[in-house]
Amino acid sequence: MSFLEVPLILLFAVVIPLIVIFHYATEMKKTKGLTAQDEATLDELRKLSEKLEDRMETLERILDDEVPDWRSRRHDTL
Prior knowledge:
With 78 residues, the chain is an all-alpha fold. It has helices at residues 5-30, 36-66, 70-77.
């Protein structure tokens, strides 16, 4: 082995992988948690799901009034 082979092997086998690992570990710590855009999207989805739930409850009330046994008939067809 030549004089430069040992330091190069150590560099490529130990130092560079450690640098890459620490780099991505710090990047993950920086981006840990939700961004403002993520929170806004989640809030929008929550509002939409509440609106859909209200619509579904309204439809169920209408069906209960119009077709009282719709729930049992639905289960009979399954």
